[in-house]
Amino acid sequence: MKDRRETVSVPEGVDLDHPNAARVYDYFLGGTANWAIDRMLGDQLSAVVPIIRTGARVNREFLGRAVRYCLRQGITQFLDLGSGVPTVGNVHEVADAVDPDSRCVYVDREPVAVAHARVLIEDDGDPERHVVLHEDLRNVNEVWKRAVATGVLDPSRPVGLLMVSVLHFLDPQEQVSEVVAQYRSFLPSGSHLIISHATFDAVPEQERQQFQQAVELYHHSGNPAFPRPREVIADYFGDFPLVEPGLVWLPEWHVEDGPAKTSALLAGRPAACCFLGGIGVKP
Ligand SMILES: C[S@@+](CC[C@H](N)C(=O)[O-])C[C@H]1O[C@@H](n2cnc3c(N)ncnc32)[C@H](O)[C@@H]1O
């Protein structure tokens, strides 16, 4: 496997003086699109919250299971918002393994994530079916217009819309509910909305305290995160009925379908991952 850092020079606009959540997450997943400043924050976070790496991997496994679930329902095109650095198990890899004609538009606001995603698509993807957009997901009209304009997404057919481990990076004042509602309104009937989101609700006390410290570290590093109550996360699905088993701890969501190697480590105490997730279907 090629070291992606050898193939991507530091892209324009990348701030290497401050850590970045996308690159820290890549570090947790064992990727290569991270720098010393990111690894320093990653190590600080791991020291405070030993389970944080596991949490990142549990999240990535949920993403894989969710994409495969969608494919089983006949969804073959995906819009991945806050896609991150495409390390192992990204959406188009998972989808292509099931349906070689599947399509994916990636969107991220972080230049390193975008640059690495583009290299990956050049190396392993198909430009006719895989596109990476550098955009802030809060610019809903622009994101949707550009995603459709790529020709990769057909807006008349159901879409798998992923908002996986990203909405908690949006400030509450930025009206997250309105942003998600606008995406829901654009989706054609039968589309699947996939969300995972950090929460403190019902998390065991030890992990809750640790995660509180991690949130503070994120704040100080310039990457604020906002875990939210279960009912707020549930509201993001609007009137989309949730597929079984509903909005649950990630290690409880269709683990039988895999990948779920890391999730299995939390089988006895799934709430320790601090992440809820689910899929809603547009009526
Ligand atoms: C924790 S990573 C999640 C990556 C991937 N979705 C996953 O679950 O494996 C969060 C990603 O969201 C991106 N992000 C945060 N806020 C964003 C925004 N407003 N618009 C687009 N991307 C954003 C970050 O740059 C980062 O790459």
From TrEMBL:
It comes from the Bacteria. GO terms for molecular function: methyltransferase activity. It holds the Pfam family Methyltransf_19. It is an enzyme of class 2 (transferase). Keywords: Methyltransferase, Transferase. Gene3D superfamilies: Vaccinia Virus protein VP39. GO terms for biological process: methylation. This is SAM-dependent methyltransferase. The lineage of its organism: Bacteria, Bacillati, Actinomycetota, Actinomycetes, Pseudonocardiales.
